[in-house]
Amino acid sequence: MIRNDPMFLVHTDHGRIVYSVTPQHLIDRPGSTLRDRCICYGDQMAVCNAGQWYQPGMREPITDKRLIALLERVSDA
Predict the structure, then answer these.
(1) Using CA atoms, how far apart are residues 19 and 45, in angstroms rounded to an integer?
(2) Could you give the count of Cα atoms lying within 13 Å of 16 in the half-sphere of its Cβ?
(3) pLDDT under 50 in the chain at which residues?
């Protein structure tokens, strides 16, 4: 599940979403924020809703405590 690309946390109305973003999409572009680039070009890695982390698609909860700890430490976009 976890890749080597940088990961960022995005806050939305639906919860918190961790995106993995390839380095070429991290370059600043006029009129584009890091949050926008995460949503447009990143791959969803995990979603947190009501305090529970889920795999993308919100069907399978993530129960691995080490993975949850890693997700909790991801920087905000």
Answers:
(1) 6
(2) 17
(3) none
